[in-house]
Amino acid sequence: MMLHAPSRRRPAAEHADGGVDGVLATSIGNGEDLGPAVRHAFEGGKPDALLHQLRNIVKKKEVEIEELCKLHYEDFIVAVDELRGVLVDAEELKSMLSAENYRLQEVASALLVRLEELLELYRIKKNVTEALRTLKVCVQVSKLCLTCNTHITNGRFHHAVKILDLIERDYIQYTPFKAFRKVIEKQIPALKLHIEKKVCSEFNNWLVHIRSAAKEIGQLAIGQAAAARQQEEEKRARRRDVVESSSAGGEFLYTLDIEHLDEDLVEFDLTPVYRAHHMHTCLGIEEKFREYYYKNRLMQLNLDLQISSSQAFLESHQPFFAQIAGFFIVEDRVLRTAGELLSEGQVETLWETATAKMTAVLDNQFNRADTASHLLLIKDFVTLLGATLARHGYKVAPLLEVLDSSRDKYHELLLSECRKQIGDILANDTFEQMVIKKEYEYNMNVLAFRLETSDSAPTFPFIAPFSTSVPDCCRIVRSFIEDSVNYLSYGGHINFYDVVKKYLDKLIIQVLNAALLNMIYTANVDVSQAMQVAANIAVLEKTCDLFLFQAAKLCSVPLRLVERPNAGLTAKSVLKASQNSAYNALLNLIDSKLDEYLARMGGINWTTDDATENATNDYVHELVAYLDFLISTAEQILPLEALYKLGVGVMTHISDSVVAAFLNESLKRFNLNAVTCIGNDLKVLEAFADERFQSAGLGDLKKDSSFRDCLIEARQLVNLLLSNQPENFMNPVIREKNYGALDYKKVATICEKFKDAPDRLFGSLSSRNTKQDARKKSMDMLKKRLKDFS
């Protein structure tokens, strides 16, 4: 049943404020925030109005509630009655639930006890399973640790590091025991550090060992290079022999001789290096080891590059360079076989460091060197060092450039030594013909330098046309060529023949030729010694081709290139010029000796009354005896060309001296008898000249004039003075034919001194035959015409 309460009308006041109250009521009904309205009321200073409005709204709501309750009060009563019935039913249900709960508690209590026991068992099982798993992990880790310790103890560091990495990667994070895990985590770095120290200790021992073994390694490698060079030189010598034999016209079979050079590398152990590098790589510190290796090897290299001040470089250079060679042979092997332990740039840096030091040392030592042989020994070893290291890929050009730059110094030392040796040889030479008593002496002193004068076998004792200084000087020149080639070989130049030729010219010209000229001009030598010096120069001039061929042979230059025109030594023409100087000096000595004999012409009685037909002066026999000795000696020593020059010079000097005797101012007059006697002297000299010219075989030279022809001026002068018609001298045709060698002025001076009558008291009153008168008239006519001509 619905209850309807009576409606009431609202007061008028409510309608008056309905506008504002409606807004607030709507806001409250919608659950809106009244804060802004409250703030606005207080800010506007009208809080009382707001409170009044709120009270009105409260009153409105209370009225609505009251009306609602009046409208539904019957429904409320019914609902309350129903609610009381529900409460009764709830009580009954509660009693039933309580009874059932009691019965359930009684039944389930036993089950709960069993459940708790089961849960406890499950918990125990879980703990045991976890414990077993944990123990299994710990046992595995312990076994790995034990195995790792065993490997470390036995030095199997690679396996130990692998196990440590396995523990770190697969086990350490699953180890449940914190204390155990901390112990393992702490020991792993310690073990790795221990392994690193052990490996570094082995590597340090290797560093010490390899430095001590480097010298032996270098010596063995350089020994291999020396053996290879020796085999190459032997092949080259065989090749030269074949070429020379083939050029001689014989038939030869060329065979290819294949020899396998033992190129086994020097053995040394790099296992500690490989092991240390690998272990550091496994430990993840490869870069650290690379730096450590390079730093230590650089320090060792700097120590190896230090020169010992307590020992001469000549004695220490081989160990010094062998040590460096061994160092870089090891580094080359490490570069090629040790992975990325070394880079090419690092090896090049090491090599540049060593090269700079070695070149500085060589420059210093070469500048201080005072012996050519010492410098050659050092150079030979340096070239072997270069050949050894070049096989391993190192750039040895700077070392060879140092050797090339010192070649002038070496040859100056070599020339200085040769100058002293040649000076001593010439000073000790007696300049007498060399007497060879044995065949081996002949082979050693004659055949060795192709100084033989005949193809037939000599009889011993053999008297050579040269003195002992010639083969001795030839040996010095030959040794110089060999030393020069040895120094220039295996250097920076492939074709060094021109260099050897230049220094060979320098030796012969500036040393040998200069010493011979010094001997000619400054030494106190007699005629025979001067003749021997001239003969020696002639022999040495012929050996120039031999020396050039020897240089070409040692330089492996084809002989056809040496035999070309203008390809010879300049020294040959210089020695040729020196021969002329020697001959001139010899002639000056001979002329001085001849003057001693010819000076006796001053003791001749130029106005003698003795008219013996074949009378001669005493001096001429002594002069001929000396000339015979002189020519005989020259025949044994000098070549025909030189002998001819000597004879021509001697006879020309005698002729000039005879003419000069007539021109001598101390000679005021001479007569026919004196001229006749001089004519007889000339006959003796002419006979001697013809005989020696023919006996010496000088006719084979096909010269334009003989020894007799050199006496022509003296002969024509005597013939003119003995002529019955001396005035024919003024006839051009007769003069050209019979007196072409005479000079007008000389003839005029001599004729003025010629008095045909003997120098005696009242000589002008003596009787004369017609022939004498005619000769005198003709002579007077000649004198007059010569005077008019002048």
From TrEMBL:
Where is it localised?
Cytoplasm, Cytosol
Superkingdom of this entry's organism?
Eukaryota
Q: Where is this region: Disordered?
A: 1-20
GO CC aspect terms = cytosol; exocyst; membrane
Q: Which InterPro entries match?
A: EXOC6/Sec15, EXOC6/Sec15_C, EXOC6/Sec15_C_dom1, EXOC6_Sec15_N, EXOC6PINT-1/Sec15/Tip20_C_dom2
Domain Exocyst complex subunit EXOC6/Sec15 C-terminal residue range list = 398-753
Query: According to its UniProt record, where is this protein mainly located?
Result: cytoplasm
Q: Which residues form the Exocyst complex component EXOC6/Sec15 N-terminal domain?
A: 53-222
Q: Which UniProt keywords apply?
A: Coiled coil, Cytoplasm, Exocytosis, Transport
Name one process (GO BP) from the record.
Answer: Golgi to plasma membrane transport
Does the record's keyword annotation contain Lipid metabolism? no
The residue ranges flagged as biased composition, category Basic residues, are 1-10
What this chain does, per the entry, is described as: Component of the exocyst complex involved in the docking of exocytic vesicles with fusion sites on the plasma membrane during regulated or polarized secretion. Involved in polarized cell growth and organ morphogenesis. During cytokinesis, involved in cell plate initiation, cell plate maturation and formation of new primary cell wall.
Family per similarity comment: Belongs to the SEC15 family.
Could you tell me what this protein is called?
Exocyst complex component
Task: Tell me the organism.
Answer: Canna indica
